[in-house]
Specification:
It holds the Pfam family Abhydrolase_3. The protein is of the alpha/beta class. It has one domain: Rossmann fold. It contains 10 helices and 8 strands. Strand 7, helix 9 and strand 8 form a beta-alpha-beta unit. Helix 3 crosses helix 10 and helix 4 crosses helix 5. The longest helix is centred in the N-terminal third of the chain and has 18 residues. The protein is globular, with a radius of gyration of 18 Å. The chain starts with 7 loop residues before the first helix and ends with a helix.
Length: about 300
């Protein structure tokens, strides 16, 4: 499932990223969050063009959440993709995933609503899930505000991939919004320290210690870890969830968990397209200098366009 070696572009990008180690404590986490703002603004100084962007306020259980709406070129209405950023449930923002969302908008022809959610450890599970599901419900009910067709999909990477899968599961079990597709990009689902991908690739972008600290910050206890709305690998039946696209990377410690979830979806009768990028690393679809990132976004965008095409 992994190539003989990491793609050179991805290897250089991962090496640059590793210069700023991931924090394993609240004080260091706060410092990194402060640093992320100016670094992200520098990274996003020449963004890919889209039709328009708008700031949106989304009502969630704890108040209002900020979101950014990306509109494609052309005349509305557009299908809506609700996007959840990655960051181990403790980091990340609309800004950190601006480049990915812009390209996803261009490739899918859909409006992409990138939403913030409460972060751990200040707000452990189920805060992020509550915000994510509320955002999907609001998007489904706000067709006019979003210039939408009424068709909705969910997408996310890493921790955001977990949230996209969870919102698809909740919508199915609660008779919630109709979700046409879920796009799960190297999702943080079904992770086990004994998996081959964790043993062999821990330390490439994500170390075993990183994974465990993120997990402890978000789940807090074993009961939460086994809740299907915290990790949908524990769901008893996925047969009612939206058709899925699952993307994994060969040198990603999270690869085997994502693969296992794709297999579970297929076993439960859910139409699923699974694609592994053997020479890629975790987070590669946000790495602007990696050519395969654009290829992967185009492939996911095509799936969303097909699913949401009237």
């Amino acid at each position: 499932m992994s190539a003989d070696q990491i793609d050179p572009q991805a290897k250089r990008a991962a090496a640059r990223q590793s210069r700023i180690p991931l924090p394993h404590g609240r004080y260091k986490l706060k410092l990194l969050r402060l640093l992320t703002g100016p670094l992200t603004r520098l990274q996003n100084r020449n963004p890919p063009s889209v039709g328009a962007t708008e700031s949106v306020t989304v009502p969630v259980p704890a108040g209002d959440s900020q979101a950014r709406l990306y509109l494609p070129d052309g005349d509305p209405p557009f299908p809506t993709v609700v996007f959840f950023h990655g960051g181990g449930f403790v980091l990340g923002s609309v800004e950190t995933h601006d480049w990915l969302c812009r390209h996803l908008t261009r490739e899918s022809g859909c409006a992409v609503l990138s939403v913030e959610y409460r972060l751990a450890p200040e707000h452990p599970f189920p805060a992020a899930v509550e915000d994510a599901y509320a955002a999907v419900e609001w998007a489904a009910d706000s067709t006019e505000r979003l210039r939408g067709t009424g068709d909705v999909a969910v997408a996310g990477d890493s921790a955001g991939g977990n949230l996209a899968a969870v919102t698809a599961l909740m919508a199915a079990e609660r008779d919630g919004p109709d979700i046409e597709r879920q796009a799960l990009l190297y999702p943080g689902i079904g992770i086990d320290p004994e998996q081959e991908s964790v043993r062999e690739h821990g330390g490439i972008v994500l170390s075993r210690d990183d994974i465990e600290w993120f997990s402890e910050a978000y789940y807090r206890n074993e009961i939460h870890r086994r809740n299907p709305y915290a990790d949908p690998i524990h769901a008893g039946d996925l047969s009612g969830v939206a058709p899925a696209t699952v993307v994994t990377a060969g040198f990603d410690p999270l690869r085997d968990g994502g693969t296992a979830y794709a297999e579970k979806l297929v076993a439960d009768g859910v139409a699923t397209r699974y694609e592994n990028y053997p020479s890629m690393v975790h987070g590669f679809m946000t790495m602007q200098e990696v050519d395969r990132a654009r290829d992967a976004i185009a492939s996911v965008g095509a799936d969303l366009a097909d699913a949401l095409d009237d």
